[in-house]
Structure formats: C-alpha cells, structure tokens
DNA sequence: CATGAATGAGGGTTCATTCAT
DNA sequence: TATGAATGAACCCTCATTCAT
C-alpha cells in the first residue's frame, strides 16, 4: 500500500542511513533497516539513492564537506584580514576550532563512522583524501602566519603541517569516542598553544602567552610525542 | 582428494584467519579464503572452528590473552618483590612495556584489527572489556606503588588509572597504524616518565630523574595532552 | 504538477509503447520509458492501459488487426466481382499485396516485434492465431479462384493454402529484417507468379505469363531471391 | 540439506538450462527453475556457472560451436580431395548438410532459441557473428568449386556467398519452427540444386542434373513449397 | 580427518502497479 | 486527468554452514 508523497522522505532516509551506518557500519547496514527506520519501504530507498554505497558516500561526504566548509571559512577569515593582530588571529582561529569540534562532538557517531572508513574496506581513501585536504589547509595557514610575521620563517611548512594536522586528527579520533563532553574550548586552546609555541616567533609568544600562561614551558616538551605524530 | 592428516591444520587455519581477518575485517573475510590460504578446504575449517565468528573470537582473544599475559607477568613481578628499589621498579616496568609494544608492533595488523573491534559491529565489547582489565591492572600497580612509598598517597587511584591506561591505549592505537618502527624504548620511557612525574613522590622523582634526564622539563608540558587522555 | 488534459495521451502512449516494445521486447520494456517517451508519467500510463501486457497486446493486435484488414479488403474485392478477368484478378491481388508489404516495410520494427512474439514467451499464440487467419483467407481465395476457373480444381485447397500462407509469412519475416527497401512490387509479383504457376490452370498461366514473363527464367536464376538476401 | 556429490550436476544443470532457456528465453528463465529442474538448489547453479548470462552463453555457444564444427568438417572434406568429381563433391556436401539439419531438427528448441538471440536484447551479436562465419565458409566453398572448374568463374563470390548463406539461414529458421519433421534429405537436395544451378557451369549442371532430376518438373508442380522453403 | 558439492537464508536491486494529492 | 512517490513481490547472487564420501 503506497503512502502519500512525503517531502521529507529523502531527509528521513538520510537521517536513518546516518543512524544505521553509524551503528552497524557499511557492510552490516541493511537497506531494509534504513528504509524501515525512515518509515518507508525498501523500494523507496532506491527512489532517493542509487545504491547502498551511494547513500553511504552521501552520508560520509556530507560529513567531510561540512568539515571542509569549516576550513574554507577559516581560510576566508584569514584572507579577509591579512595582517591581523596576533590576538585577533588566535581568537578567530580558536572560534573556528571550537565550532569544528563542537560539530564533531555533536555528530560524533557519524564522524567516527567517517574517520573509521565506514568500518569497511573500501572507503579509507575518502578519509585519506580529507586528511590531505586538512594538511594543505594547515600549510596555507602557516604560510599566512609566516607572511604576517607571527611565525618563524625557519619553520618547515610541510613538516609542521603534517605534524599539526596529525595532531588535530588524533584529537578528533579521540573525541568521537568520548562519552562525556570534554571542555572543548580548553582542549582547543591547548592545541593552539602547542602550535603557537611550536612555530611562533618569540615576540608573538611573549605577546600571546598570557592567553595560555600556564603552558609557557610546555611546547618543546612535546617533541617525543611529536615524532610519532609526524610518523603518522 | 583428502589430504594426509595434518597436525598443524588448526595452526595453519588460525594463521590464515589472522591474515584474512586483519586484511578484510570480520564481515568481509570469507571462510573460503581462510581455508584456501591455509591450503585446506572449507570443510576442514569447520573441523577446527565452530564458526567464522568463533575463529574470529579465537584470533582476537589470542591477542587479548597475550596482552593480558604481559600484564599478569608484570603483576607477578611486582608481587615477587614487594619493596623494590625505585630503579628496579622502573626497569622491570620498562622491560614489560617494551615487550608489550614490541609484540604490538610485530603483530600490528592483528592488534589493530582487535583494537578496531574486527571492523565489525559485534565485538567492541571485547576491546572494552580488555580496557577495563588494563585499567584495573594499572590501579593495582598504583596501589603497589603507593604502598611502597613511591607514589604519592594523595593520588586518586581510579582517576589516575583511567588516565594512564587511556594513554597507553592511545599509544597502541597509534603504533599499529605506523608504517616505520618508532624507537619503542624511547617512547615507552616517555610514557613512563609521564606517569612517574604525574604520580610519584618528589623523592622518587629526584631519585629517578636521571633515568630520563632530558625529559626533566617535559613532564608538566604533557598535561594538555593528558587532559584529553583523562577525558577518555 | 498535473498537465492539462491531453486528448492525445492515449495515442502518444501507444506510439511510445510501439517504439519501446519494438526496440526492447515485452520483457525489457519499462513502463517508465514508455511514459517518458510519451511525455507523460507512469501514472498516466495506467489511466490508459490496464497493464503493460495489455498495452503490448494492444500494440500487437493493432498490427494484426491492420494486417487482417488488408485481408478483409481483399476478400471484399474478390466478392465484389465474382468473375473477374484473370488480369483484373491478378492486378487487384498485386495491389493488395503491395499495400500489405508496404505497410510491413513501413512498420517493420513493429511487425517484426509482432512476428517474433514480442521477444517474450507468452504471445506466440497471437501470431499463430493470425497465421491461421491468413491461411483461411488464402483458402477462401483459392476457392474463389477455382470457382472462377482460374485455378485447377484438382488443387488441394488446405494444403495449398498452408503452403501459400507459409510462403507469405516467410517473406514477411525476411522483409522486416532488411535494412534497405527491396523492390516490393517485384518481389510480390514473384510470389504471385509462384502461386499462379503452382495452382493455375494451363490456360490462365498462358494468359497471364506475359505479366511476369521474365520470371520464367529468373526463378532458376535466383536473382529475385538474391536481392533480398543480399540486402540482408 | 546438502546432497551427495553429483558428478553429473553440471550436465544436468546445463540440460535444465537448455530446456528452461528454450522454453522461456533468457529474461524469463529463472535460475531457481533451472536448478530445480536439475534437482539442485539455486546455490548449486552458481557452483557451476558464473551467472545466468554465462550459462546462457554456454548453452548458445554450445549450439554455435556444434554448428561451426559441421562447417569445419565440411571444409576438411573439401580440402582432403581438392579435385573431386562433381558427383562426389555433391554427395559429400549433401551428407554434411543432412547431418547439420538433422542436428538442427533434433535440437530445434535450442537452435531456435539461439537463432532468436535468446529472445532477449543482448545476444543478437552471437547470431550475427555466426552468420558471418557461415558466409565465409560458403565463400571458401565457392572458391574451391570455381578452382575445381565446377562453378562458373564469373560468379561474384561475396555476393553469391551472401545469398547462399542467407538461404540456408532462412531454411534453418523455418525448420526449427516446424512441428513435423520434413524430409530433410529432399529439402537439402533442393537447396543444393538451387545453388548448383545458380553458380554451376553448364557442363556440371548437365552432369549432375540427374541427381535431382525430378526437380525439373517439380518446380512448377508443387515446387512452390520447395522453392519457398529453399529460398528461405 | 579432509573434501568440496550442495544448501538455503539473506540481502541488494528492479520495476510493475497503486493511490493520495 | 495527471502525477510520481511509494510499495512489495521477484529475482539474482553470495556465502556461512552441512554432510556424504
């Protein structure tokens, strides 16, 4: 028995797909279950998606696109004010990061699915591709920082970008597995401090150290960890 | 064409299962492939294993059992010498850890499969259960350390155990994804230093600081990372 | 978005159905494609046809009805002039046949579909039924010819009718597969000559042989046949 | 419940596939039905065939391969005796043809399926390919005949080959639709006579005309059957 | 013990048909 | 009338598991 046309069918299917994929992974997710959770029939699923794989891609790419959008906004911010004061620079950066990780936290099931490649064999490349994307963004950010005189010009951009993006990646991977919400602003501030102390000029570090004062001596300490990070 | 009885059939099947599961995850692994890689038939597989799931459990529990065994050996060590000198204590601990992480490195495909729950939906509990096991071990270790006067009695055992076991867990998860072997001894020493400085008495820290001298300033530096760990 | 009522919807759907059925056969034709080619929706299709099968029957029976109509006209012609001169008789016959095979040629995709039973399993009976119809018509024609003294009274009507109708059937089956239009009048004249020589009285054969004189030798020559073959 | 190993399973499946495909065409044939008719399960079908399509190809190519084999034998015959007497030449040819069309008759359901492209859209090319094969064979045969002085050297080989192979094709298409067995030897003799009279030198025609003498008068008599049959 | 053909439940996908709008 | 989203039966194919040999 057919049902009335439903303008939200696609959304409902997508939401159901998110839930089912997040819970069971690509392979164990059944189209039947997705459809049923959306209150529709299996056939209806195929009105809205080419295939189970395509729905999966849509779900995962939705996540990646949202994350990429945050990066774009960040880049736009940086470009809009080419010589920001260090304080402004850090504040904006912090805002973006908090928003990103709030999104990650709110959608942790889905982001976790994404970061784990759908718990299947075929989609790791999506994650890898996004990781590259992040690394390029970080490199760009570093270039801007150097150009603005905030970062040391001796910084090896590619190496530092790998390190920094790897650090954020790992933070995200951990976050999606948490069951209680960490203090994101503080965590992100820590990450930021790490980066700033790692690549900032002494002047800038002096200028901004009050923003994260108790971390003053920590930065260099991290290098042993850092090796592993970079290795990743 | 039956083969001659093969006393190693079980082992060969298990090794093949490890490879296939590690490569494809539980769901995408085919019994056929496992049997073939073992040079046996599907039928033979079922002579040695109840089911694919059971083989998977055996593989994963083999890993977990091996890891647990390291912990048991560690515990036995600690109990054998209830009041070791701090140096001995640290040395033994280091040895155990190096052996553990060497095992993890050597079997990283398999350990990774395990830590990722078989890339399937149904076996996360095994990993969670093992994590509890580790945490209890760490707690026990802390108790011993406090009792021996090496750790501050003000340490909140459960909290610190969560932090420490989480730290090791994360280190392992990262290690299994590396493609070049990190300097395990150094990494483990870092972790140890972190723990000792975190929970040790000032006396002990003074006594042992020469064992990881260049880390002298690092300890506090790690806390930002640490916080995240605890959040886990 | 309903469209304005379309008085030609049925026709458009039928034409689309002809195209789609002719191209893909009954089984592989999709109602969706038919509707789309008609510029209508699937729903509209079901306003005009009970089912896909029914549309198929309508298409095929349209062809068969058209062909039957030719036969009826022929019969009417024959009855209108019960004692025609042999020349008139042959001329009218030829005209009918040319019209028939021109129709067959013009609609060869459709006629081919029909003769091939829709490239499906369930509609051979339609074709068989029509073949019977043709055979009866030929028998009737033979009876008239015999009654008019043009055909030998010794002709075994049923046998000859089977033969003749079979011959035309086969000619049609070949024609619908040609890609260049053969000289239909000539082909049909050949068929006619064949029949006339087969069943005609010596007198009539003498009388009309000038209507297809060159066939006398050509039959053996193979050229008339040849054209069709070569066309293939 | 599994059954005992059956060494004839493949054959039984293939025979069942022949029956089911012949009866219902590729599209309407169900793997389930094939398996059931072979007394096996659906799964067993896939132990022996990649897919339904592949089984269909095997069936059809079996037919085409058998037919091609007849042609090869014929060619071998011709090559073995490069200057046969016309009588021998015709006799051998006749023998081959009779065997071919006996095969066609015995397997008419299957051959019909084949000639009709599986009553599906995708396999016409197989038939077309085989038709080319036949035409080349005929051309080769003509070359030998001309070389042996039996056929007029003015014969346009390609054109005649098209004609002759088309004639045989049409005869086959008709044969597979008959319900009572025609006198194959006679039919084939008719075809042969047609060809010989079409392309033979006057000498040869004189020499061999006694091999099919009664055709001389039959043409006009009831030859219409014959001619059409042959022509087809 | 070992084999591997056989089984059959399971799930992805298609598409004729329905019906609320 | 017209629409097209929705339905659900069908059917292809996979693969874990069984069992006669």
Task: Summarize the SSE layout with pairings.
Four copies of one chain form a homotetramer.
Chain A (H helix, E strand, L loop, with lengths): L8 H20 L2 H7 L4 H7 L3 H29 L5 H21 L1 H8 L8 H24 L9 H19 L8 H16 L2 H7 L14 H9 L1
Helix pairs in contact in A: 1-2, 1-4, 1-6, 2-3, 4-5, 4-6, 4-7, 5-6, 5-9, 7-8, 8-11
Chain D binds a DNA duplex (21 and 21 nucleotides) through helix 3.
Describe this structure in words.
- The structure is a homotetramer of 232-residue chains.
- Chain A has 232 residues and is mainly alpha-helical.
- Chain A has 2 domains: 1-49, Orthogonal Bundle (Arc Repressor Mutant, subunit A); 56-231, Tetracycline Repressor, domain 2.
- Chain A contains 11 helices and no strands.
- Chain A has helices at 9-28, 31-37, 42-48, 52-80, 86-106, 108-115, 124-147, 157-175, 184-199, 202-208, 223-231.
- In chain A, helix 1 (9-28) runs antiparallel to helix 2.
- Chain A is elongated, with a radius of gyration of 21 Å.
- Chain A starts with 8 loop residues before the first helix and ends with a helix.
- Chain D binds a DNA duplex (21 and 21 nucleotides) through residues 1-6, 9, 30-32, 40-48, 51-52.
